[in-house]
Design a protein that fits this description.
The complex is a heterodimer of chains A (377) and B (75).
Chain A lengths: L1 H11 L14 E11 L2 E14 L3 E14 L2 H6 L3 E16 L2 E12 L2 E14 L4 E16 L2 E22 L2 E14 L7 E5 L7 E5 L5 E15 L3 E12 L4 E13 L3 E12 L27 E14 L9 E19 L13 E16 L1
Antiparallel strand pairs in A: 1-2, 1-18, 2-3, 3-4, 4-5, 5-6, 6-7, 7-8, 8-9, 9-12, 10-11, 12-13, 13-14, 14-15, 15-16, 16-17, 17-18
Chain B lengths: L1 H16 L27 H12 L19
The chains are: A mainly beta (377), B mainly alpha (75).
Chain lengths: 377, 75
């Protein structure tokens, strides 16, 4: 549910080529992804194939599956563990004319209680002696939200995303990037299953639950800056920073540093550290003073004040196999990320022996693995 | 919305400046290092779009993560 909406936004924000005057190489990727953290396990395949035609047209197709098994803190405290599957298809088309690339993409994502269609139009142009690449895009999304076991409930989300992305060669060893995006959403933005808790003196544990209730609109703005530097012994270091704020009063900072180190012609090693922090949404509370306390109510930990840390490692091995002579080169890559999520206002109510509102704050660790084969043809 | 319009206007202004020929300060023959594959913003779009999805499902912020170099709109 929440995963699918995040996916829609993620995929909508992707389709901008970094170098507009050349279409991407013909390439196929086959990936297995695995996530395990906070009682949730998600894994599945992901496939992407793209192919150029006459050096000025390119087409791409993708397929992605999430197999979800959830016994998260929300689920074990207010519902029952469940399993479900989400499938996503995507197609894209690009046209290169002189220094301008036009692109259009469409994707569909479906789950048994959520269906989403997303379309994006983008234009990219190289300018100033090809030192600058500017991209603009517009995305429109249409989601249908339903609820398992409740045939009377159906609602929608209408999403629009406006974005600009600039990549700038600053020196012969450094590239700079700047991105700005506005995301507006209108419709049923909360999770139809999630509950908020409120003080209830009549309940044995001292609190009860009621459905959460969000505003029907949300507009967010994100601005990011990044710099990548080529080190003299052939390695690269990158720094990223993002500022985000929205009409729900969430204000967030994201910072990341990463380092890439090639070894011989075959091996490439990556290491990165990412830090994220955010304030709570205006209508969020871990424990409301009473039932129906205010117009809007949320206890989604994603809207709580929180921080996260990630330490990531990657290794890629490039090779050419005589058995796959149709590929000009191939690579096998493994990436592992260790994440920690810490909540400043979301309490672990699976613990016992605490008065309501004094339980320890919740936190969890997650392991994320990506293993993929890439072939260029 | 308003900010997006301002961004579009800025872009148009930048494009108009393009008519008056800016001399590239990094010459084409000096771009060997930045053309190295290790300098790509995103070497593996399938992999990086997945990890962005992992964050967006668990954090309040989203967007402005830059070009991913794929033109695929895939996840």
């Amino acid at each position: 549910m929440q995963l699918i909406r995040a996916t829609i936004i993620t995929l909508a924000l992707l389709p901008l080529p970094a170098a507009a005057a050349v279409l991407p190489d013909d390439r196929a990727d086959l990936m297995y992804h695995y996530y395990d953290g906070g009682g949730v396990t998600i894994d599945g395949p992901s496939v992407l194939v793209r192919k150029k035609f006459a050096e000025k047209y390119a087409a791409s197709a993708s397929y992605y599956v999430d197999m979800i098994s959830s016994a998260s803190i929300d689920v074990i405290t207010t519902a029952s563990p469940y399993t479900e599957e989400r499938t996503q298809y995507g197609v894209g088309f690009e046209y290169l004319r002189n220094k301008v690339t036009y692109s259009a993409t469409f994707s569909n994502s479906s789950e048994n209680d959520y269906e989403a269609d997303t379309a994006t139009l983008a234009i990219s142009q190289d300018m100033f002696g090809d030192l600058t690449s500017v991209s603009l895009f517009f995305t429109r999304g249409w989601d249908d939200v339903t609820r398992r076991g409740d045939a009377t409930f159906a609602d929608e989300i209408d999403r629009r995303i406006y974005g600009v992305d600039i990549s700038q060669v600053a020196t012969k060893n450094m590239v700079l990037g700047l991105s700005y995006e506005t995301i507006t959403e209108e419709g049923f933005l909360n999770n139809p299953y999630r509950q908020v808790r409120y003080v209830d003196p009549d309940a044995a544990v001292g609190y009860s639950f009621e459905p959460e209730r969000y505003p029907r609109t949300r507009t967010g703005n994100a601005l990011s800056l990044r710099a990548r530097y080529f080190l003299p012994y052939r390695a690269a270091i990158q720094g990223d920073y993002r500022f985000y704020t929205d009409t729900w009063d969430i204000l967030a900072h994201t910072a990341e540093v990463s380092y890439t180190h090639p070894l011989d012609e075959e091996w490439t090693f990556d290491v990165r550290y990412r830090f994220y922090t955010q304030d709570a949404a205006e209508f969020y509370s871990d424990l409301f003073p009473r039932s129906d306390f205010q117009n809007f109510l949320a206890r989604d930990k994603e809207l709580s004040a929180m921080t996260s840390h990630t330490l990531g490692f990657g290794v890629a091995y490039e090779f050419k196999s005589p058995r796959m002579s149709f590929l000009s080169r191939s690579s096998l890559s493994l990436r592992y990320d260790r994440m920690r999520f810490e909540y400043d206002d979301f309490r672990d109510i699976s613990t016992t022996g605490f008065a309501p509102g004094t339980e320890p704050f919740y936190s969890f660790d997650a392991d994320v693995i990506r293993f993929f084969f890439s072939g260029w043809f | 919305m308003r900010a997006a319009r301002s961004a579009a206007l800025l872009l148009l202004a930048a494009a108009a400046c393009g008519c008056s020929r800016v001399e590239p300060w990094v010459k084409p023959y000096e771009r060997e290092n930045i053309a190295d594959p290790i300098m790509a913003w995103d070497r593996d779009p399938v992999s990086s779009s997945y990890i962005r999805h992992v964050y967006e499902a668990r954090e309040g912020a989203r967007g402005a993560l830059g070009a991913s170099g794929g033109g695929c709109g895939c996840n």
